[in-house]
Known about the structure:
The structure is a single chain. The protein is mainly α. Helices cover 75% and strands 0% of the residues. The chain contains seven helices and no strands. The mean pLDDT is 91.
Amino acid sequence: MLHEQIKKTLKEALLAKDEVRLLTVRGLLSAFVNELVAKKMKPDAILSDEDALSVIKRGVKQRKDSIEQFTEGNRPDLAELEKAELAILLKYLPETMSRDQIRPIAVAKMKELGITEKSKMGMLMGALSKELKGQAEGADIKAVVDELLS
């Protein structure tokens, strides 16, 4: 389980005195507890891998937003810390599909659903998002669909 693996990482970071990894993993475990409480589970329970991945993805998105904000605000010191935390979080996410890998699936789904015009883009996006959930980024799916329907 991913949740248990991250708990072990906390111990390793403590022993290694790795401050950035320790800070990141503690924050992640805290987010896991928040997710457990939100799901009306006991705080000491273990999250499923699917739930843990969604929490990690939220953390990744937050870090990317923070990096952008700190860079625009001329705070490279804070942006660097966020980048270091982002690198740690990305290690826990599975590889996502590239646009080149998404394209043939999108073409097949277009034929299957009989979609040929841009007005049906939402239907295709929904079908692909459901089929590729957790395997591909939504922005990449949208880019491929835009390209195919333009």
